[in-house]
Amino acid sequence: MSDKALTQIPAYYIVLKSGSPQIIGWQTLWHDEGSAVPDYAVPSGYEAVVIPDMTADLWADFQQNQNGCSGGLAYEGGKIIPYSPPATLSGQQAALAALSVQKKALGVYFQPSAASAPVLFPSSDTAYANALQQAQVAQLGAWTDGTAWTLADGSSVPMTGDDVTALFKKLAKYRGACQTHAAALNTTLQHDLNADLTAGWPDNH
After folding, report:
1. Considering the entire predicted model, what is its pTM?
2. 87-108 pLDDT, tens per residue?
3. Radius of gyration (C-alpha) of the chain in whole angstroms
4. Which of 167, 166, 147 is nearest to 157 (CA)?
């Protein structure tokens, strides 16, 4: 857009909730450029920001988003951007709980005695319960060495009784580490709602 075209863009004022970048609405500023927005135009608890010199990019943002601006946009650093509501403790804890389930079910790499390289074994709640049951069978001496263990992709690998016991121990250690890390993150959230929930999870190898 040329400078000449920019001069045809009207001045605007946007209405923000006090202390928040969230855009509540915007209006054309029919007063002289740079003049103050009249008090009656701004509700109590809100503030107005006058934008007399509209850039081409900012004007495009207005044109593109003005129909859906309510609750959806923010004005920060001289730019109109998508609005992200402030994090809440309950919201972050829900996200953490979902992530914890996901991490615990990521699978664990374990190398059975008959394999030439580590194999990814499922570690979901169901898979863990099955591993526990089979480890108990092995401990009772009732596991037949060479029995096939079915993996998540449908393939199988032969396992000895010692393999079964070692696999269960590795699954338990990994899942326990995930739970410990989730508990630590939950404690951090009590004083830092912006804590990175994706960092620091245990390795599954």
Report:
1. 0.68
2. 899 999 999 999 999 999 999 9
3. 29
4. 147
